[in-house]
Amino acid sequence: MKLKSISLVTALLVSQTVLAVPAVLAQSPVSGSVVHEESLQDHQVHTSTNTVAAGSVDTKETTTEPPAIPTVPGDTDTTATDSQAPDVPLTPEEPAENTDTTDPSGEDGDNAAAPSIGGGQLILHMNSTRMEHDGQVYTSTQPMTVKDGVSYVSIRSLVDRVGYEIAYDSSTKETIIKYGEDELRFLTDSKTYKVNGETMTMKGASYQDNNVFMVPLTSITQALNISYKVEDKKVIMQLSTKPVASFTVLNNKIIAGETTVIYQTKSSSPRGVQIVDEKWEGRQDIFEAAGIYTVSYAVQDANGEWSDPYIQTIVVVNPNIPPVAEFKTDKAEYKMGEPITITDLSYDEDGEIVDRQWMNNYPAFFTPGPVTIQLIVTDQDGASAKVEHTINITTETLYTYDEFSRLFTPVGSNFMINGGEALGYERLPYTYSTEPYTLFKDNGPEPVSTEGVLYRDTITGLTRFMTHHVNKTNEKGKVYIIAKNINEIPANLEIITTGMAGPDVYAEITGTKSVARYFENYQNDSKKKTISLEPGESKIIFEDMHKIAMKPEETISFLGDLYSDSPIEYTSVFVKDGQDPLEVVDTLPVLDPIQSVMRGTFTDSTRIFEHYNTIGGNKNYRLSLTDNAADPFQIGVDTPLEISSVNAGNYGVIYKLKLRVAPRTLITFNPRGGLYMGAALVNGNLVSFSHTGKDNVSGQTSVLHRTGDSEEIVEIWTTPSAGSNLPFSILFMPLPKIKQQ
């Protein structure tokens, strides 16, 4: 929090200390223990360890407890004068010869003292109303009081001592302290107060005692870094009336010889005295040379008092040197279908290249003639450079497009095939077995338009959760999964892996990322976790799912596995952001799943496909999955509705393919239903792929693996991605022979 005029607040707080000696003034900054008043005499000096720039106050140190101020009840005006504040004015025991005894609050009293102008030395006497300000003795309205280990002082006595304005806002029941541009607001019986609108917390609540508003003292000294020393049961504080100066440099970057530095100054007086002069040291509007410069700023008030200098270092850098764009090809001339190797030689002398834009950097060309390859690089300062080189493609062919694509397309990347011909590839016969994972499939309703229960069922053992929803409300919301132990003995959950993606407006992106993260986290065990549930206890599981609220039209996708040693009731809910799902789960309605998007509970949701005859050789093969033919859809139950449910597309089913593959065989993923973005584990390596576009998506195929010169056992794990289209096929194609270049 930043105070507009910290010195004002400092003065107020200092004066508060004057009223009474806090039992916790000698609180250890390390241990935090409280030393009562009787032991303060054993301590000699206390100085705040927080440091600030000269002439300024560290505005970051606001987490400690600041001052507290009372509320004056019973007035009808919105803002009353200081005569409505609760405290009685200070009475000097030995008034100076020309002391003005007019009561500043408008109260009668021959003993009323003039408000202090602040500054000088202020001495507080422990367990006493005696205060000394630059040799003048004053009496506070109440002695310092220790309550629940917190020392309290009279706020009005402090205000009168330092010359602040005090008022009362009857509409908010707040006592208001104003000084210059700063405003502090306090409520009776509250542990918080406001400084320029920012809420702060004190160690104790303010209160009124016989119409005297009492506030904690040590929180003020700690919050505003007021130093003091304790001698012979006296707290001695130094008050300052110096003005305060500071400045900010508005430029994000200052370049030598080019940038005009923009200085924004700020100054104030703790007494509200006009600032009449300023003084700079080291200031330059344009720094001609790079380096680190020290700039000092001070101001003078109308009373002739100078502030401490505010010092700031300014870093000046040399003008940016543009990057150098350069690359080379391994040859100047290539056959059609001959691989081209491009080496990027670009560099940036004084930074780094953050963007590269290529043109015609294809791995091969299949049309003869000259080809110009272009590269544009951009550095972090926005400077760019361009380079072009021309190569020649001869009329001789090394590889056809199909041969080249099969041999050199990187794993995870796509190339074009004849999608119609792929349907004619020989079908790969197989049988499959299952693993006993029960699927809790929660994607109906996919568009959620109100709070409610999305799905609920009780499951034992290995369980997989598949969740996919879009927020169709007008507010932020979150999806939670709650696990409840319905047994009479404790239960344990072992989370195996999870994959969370979103929120995002693109459903297909969340789908593919959740699958990729599911497999990745399975490989590294990063999401493994044990959860214990007492009988009848409910807990929110899968915390990644609800870290970020879904905005309207955003989607989340989730895939996760766990094991429970007892029957557990799982409930998926959608609630507004800020709502505690555990508190409202039993009051939420069960939402209609919208039957075009089936939810449900499905057994045996891991399918293992095995084929131990060698695949490949000189033939193209096709393994079709999620087609509801060779790979039938799951039949389950929608438990809340007590109806049968079909898992159309087998979303949430994990496919594990264990295959014996011939040497020099290409394995690819071929979508057959349209747009598809997904991921797979291939021999333990994560492969992500994307098939997009308006036309001929089924003509795209992405590389999963190539076998070497010997037969291999290849294991592929994949699962349908939420938001993508089905079915899909795994293709096996022989690799062409390598030719001499």
Tell me what you see in this structure.
The chain has seven helices and 50 strands. The protein is mainly beta. α1 packs across α2 (155-162). The longest helix is centred in the last third of the chain and has 18 residues, at 507-524. It is flat and about 105 Å long.
Uncertain runs are 1-116
Structural class: mainly beta
Count of helical stretches: 7
Biggest sheet layout: 9 strands, mixed
**Beta content:** 35-45%
Shape: flat
Helix percent reads: under 10%
Distance between the termini: 69 Å
Give the mean pLDDT: 83
Radius of gyration based on Cα positions: 38 Å
List how many beta strands DSSP finds.
50
What's this model, at a glance?
With 741 residues, the protein is mainly β. Helices cover 8% and strands 43% of the residues.
Structure keywords:
flat, disordered N terminus, single chain, 50 strands, 7 helices, mainly beta
Can you lay out the helices and strands and say which pair or pack?
Layout: H1 6-19, E1 45-46, E2 91-92, E3 120-125, E4 130-133, E5 136-139, E6 145-147, E7 150-154, H2 155-162, E8 165-169, E9 174-179, E10 182-186, E11 192-195, E12 198-201, E13 207-209, E14 212-216, H3 218-223, E15 228-231, E16 234-239, E17 244-249, E18 263-268, E19 275-281, E20 291-301, E21 310-316, E22 327-329, E23 333-336, E24 342-344, E25 353-359, E26 369-379, E27 384-397, H4 401-408, E28 414-416, H5 419-422, E29 426-427, E30 431-435, E31 438-442, E32 447-448, E33 452-471, E34 477-485, E35 491-504, H6 507-524, E36 529-533, E37 538-541, E38 555-576, H7 581-584, E39 600-602, E40 606-615, E41 621-625, E42 634-638, E43 643-647, E44 654-661, E45 665-671, E46 676-682, E47 685-691, E48 700-706, E49 712-718, E50 728-734
Parallel strand pairs: 23-27, 29-41, 31-33, 32-33, 40-44
Antiparallel strand pairs: 1-15, 2-5, 3-4, 3-16, 4-5, 6-7, 7-14, 8-9, 9-10, 10-11, 11-12, 13-14, 15-16, 17-18, 19-20, 20-21, 22-24, 25-26, 26-27, 28-48, 30-40, 31-39, 33-38, 34-37, 34-38, 35-36, 35-38, 41-50, 42-43, 44-49, 45-48, 45-50, 46-47, 46-49
Helix pairs in contact: 1-2
